[in-house]
């Protein structure tokens, strides 16, 4: 599927400026979208065969696109997601339903309280149990062993989702190679890979001569069967009591406003599948990228280690039993927060962003968009655009020391859409638009971001407190990681994230990427 770059003119009658003809099928198309924004400006378009995709990278205009509820709606993703998630032909899940449709409002509002701070806090011990199991497994491995940390962090995410969301431990962290617990883990990985292939090739479902396409039909059925079985398992426990704040309990309490009856099992199974799968790859890959960026920046690692040491959470030769981590620690580990935010900025796992289509003609940043125009807000490009961030390609946690660093400065470029931006609800309490979009923005932003952030930060804190990491030789250094990086629904290391690790009880040295060492400042 070839494509030409075109810059949207103003007014449109002036003609289009054509550029080169790269393809959206590239595994690193997120980098291409970012490079084109620097070349052509923060609003441009890609011509792909007979249709055009408008790309918006300017932070304020991105918030307008994502925050406008009535004139824009989701595009591209819905039909593909229903292939995997929906158990009733023609019925859309919350993910694919129209924004503000009765069904979308029912599910969105009915499950929102599952992610409030008090309820996430109650599930925090479950997060720690999963992390403790992972740490025990790693501690039992022989010195110098290589481990795919991307595989490990995906397992962490799956098990935490199961425990907090559905009160079920899938035990994929009980062993890193247990065929008895890995079926669902494997199904999710393969189905997401197939969905990605279908986003770049609409004809793929009909390519039955391809073995992966034939297998996909079986895998989609297998995933839906597992979710239907999970519904039966949860309902067999009886009606959820008032103390049950899991996602599953919230879904079981919902009533169809038209009938007053609970949601039928097939609709519940679709929503179980949505909430179960939506965060696993994104959270797991985000943790993996953060470990990598810390390892690549030894000065950052030294500061993070010092903060964990000061909090009594660091394993050292002198402290073989650090104190147990508590939920309250996350609010006090300031540098940890900076590191995790910066990693999500530099390597946002939803790199391609989110696509909308215009329900009516509208103007965005001086550009006229006819009704039916497809518009993409690529989060990687937003995070790496010089118009939004100073020195955007540098991993610099200290940038988050500035109050409200996640907000964009007001620019005249959005003046013609300022009123609509104000009315859309996309602005922050300070009256500014967000330039930090790892979880999107507006009414369709990630409902589970509070859980994702806690899982992410707690995982980084516990793993870094216990081990120092080095890239395994097979990765080919930072250049090899960049070369193998792939954007497949989520931004992920295409060949895994193979690392060696060493217990901090055995060494007080942090290794630089070039093999030299940097003394850990917490023990100097």
UniProtKB/TrEMBL annotation:
<dbReference type="GO" id="GO:0020037">
    <property type="term" value="F:heme binding"/>
</dbReference>
<dbReference type="InterPro" id="IPR017972">
    <property type="entry name" value="Cyt_P450_CS"/>
</dbReference>
<dbReference type="InterPro" id="IPR001128">
    <property type="entry name" value="Cyt_P450"/>
</dbReference>
<keyword id="KW-0349">Heme</keyword>
<dbReference type="Pfam" id="PF00067">
    <property type="entry name" value="p450"/>
</dbReference>
<dbReference type="GO" id="GO:0016705">
    <property type="term" value="F:oxidoreductase activity, acting on paired donors, with incorporation or reduction of molecular oxygen"/>
</dbReference>
<keyword id="KW-0503">Monooxygenase</keyword>
<comment type="similarity">
    <text>Belongs to the cytochrome P450 family.</text>
</comment>
<keyword id="KW-0560">Oxidoreductase</keyword>
<feature type="binding site" description="axial binding residue">
    <location>
        <position position="446"/>
    </location>
    <ligand>
        <name>heme</name>
    </ligand>
</feature>
<keyword id="KW-0479">Metal-binding</keyword>
<dbReference type="InterPro" id="IPR050121">
    <property type="entry name" value="Cytochrome_P450_monoxygenase"/>
</dbReference>
<keyword id="KW-0408">Iron</keyword>
<dbReference type="GO" id="GO:0004497">
    <property type="term" value="F:monooxygenase activity"/>
</dbReference>
<dbReference type="InterPro" id="IPR036396">
    <property type="entry name" value="Cyt_P450_sf"/>
</dbReference>
<protein>
    <recommendedName>
        <fullName>Cytochrome P450</fullName>
    </recommendedName>
</protein>
<dbReference type="GO" id="GO:0005506">
    <property type="term" value="F:iron ion binding"/>
</dbReference>
<dbReference type="InterPro" id="IPR002401">
    <property type="entry name" value="Cyt_P450_E_grp-I"/>
</dbReference>
């Amino acid at each position: 599927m070839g494509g030409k770059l075109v810059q949207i003119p103003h007014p449109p009658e002036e003609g289009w400026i054509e550029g080169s003809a790269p393809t959206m099928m590239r595994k690193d198309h997120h980098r291409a979208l970012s490079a084109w924004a620097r070349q052509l400006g923060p609003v441009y378009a890609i011509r792909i065969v007979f249709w055009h995709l408008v790309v918006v990278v300017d932070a304020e205009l991105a918030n307008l696109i994502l925050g406008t509820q009535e004139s824009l709606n989701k595009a591209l993703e819905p039909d593909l997601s229903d292939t995997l998630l929906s158990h009733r032909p023609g019925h859309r899940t919350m993910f694919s339903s129209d924004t503000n449709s009765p069904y979308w409002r029912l599910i969105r509002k009915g499950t929102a309280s599952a992610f409030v701070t008090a309820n996430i806090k109650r599930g925090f011990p479950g997060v720690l149990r999963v992390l403790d199991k992972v740490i025990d497994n790693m501690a039992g491995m022989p010195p110098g062993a290589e481990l795919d940390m991307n595989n490990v962090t995906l397992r962490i995410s799956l098990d935490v989702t199961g425990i907090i969301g559905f009160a079920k431990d899938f035990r994929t962290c009980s062993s890193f190679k247990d065929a008895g617990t890995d079926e669902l883990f494997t199904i999710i990985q393969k189905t997401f890979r197939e969905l990605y292939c279908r986003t770049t090739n609409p004809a793929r479902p009909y390519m039955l001569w391809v073995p992966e396409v034939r297998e996909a039909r079986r895998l989609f059925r297998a995933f839906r069967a597992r979710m239907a079985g999970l519904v039966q398992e949860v309902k067999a426990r009886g009606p959820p009591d008032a103390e049950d704040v899991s996602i599953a309990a919230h879904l079981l309490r919902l009533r169809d406003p038209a009938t007053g009856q609970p949601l039928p099992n097939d609709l519940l199974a679709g929503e179980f599948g949505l909430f179960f799968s939506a965060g696993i790859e994104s959270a797991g890959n985000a943790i993996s990228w953060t470990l990598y960026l810390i390892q690549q920046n030894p000065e950052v690692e030294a500061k993070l280690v010092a903060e964990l040491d000061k909090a009594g959470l660091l394993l050292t030769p002198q402290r073989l039993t650090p104190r147990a981590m508590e939920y309250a620690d996350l609010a006090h580990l300031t540098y940890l927060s900076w590191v995790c935010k910066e990693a999500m900025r530099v390597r946002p796992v939803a790199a391609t962003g989110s696509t909308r289509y215009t329900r009516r003609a509208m103007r965005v940043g001086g550009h006229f968009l006819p009704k039916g125009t497809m518009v993409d807000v690529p989060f990687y490009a937003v995070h790496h655009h010089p118009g939004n961030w100073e020195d955007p390609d540098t991993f610099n946690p200290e940038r988050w020391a500035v109050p409200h660093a996640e907000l964009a400065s007001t620019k005249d470029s959005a003046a013609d859409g300022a009123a609509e931006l104000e009315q859309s609800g996309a602005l922050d309490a300070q009256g500014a638009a967000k330039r930090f979009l790892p979880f999107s923005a507006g009414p369709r932003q990630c409902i589970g971001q509070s859980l994702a952030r806690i899982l992410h930060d707690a995982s980084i804190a516990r793993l870094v407190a216990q081990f120092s990491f080095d890239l395994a030789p097979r990765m080919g250094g930072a250049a090899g990681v960049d070369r193998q990086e792939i954007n497949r629904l989520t931004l992920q290391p295409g060949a895994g994230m193979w690392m060696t690790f060493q217990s901090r009880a055995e060494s007080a040295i942090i290794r630089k990427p070039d093999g030299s060492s940097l003394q850990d400042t917490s023990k100097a």
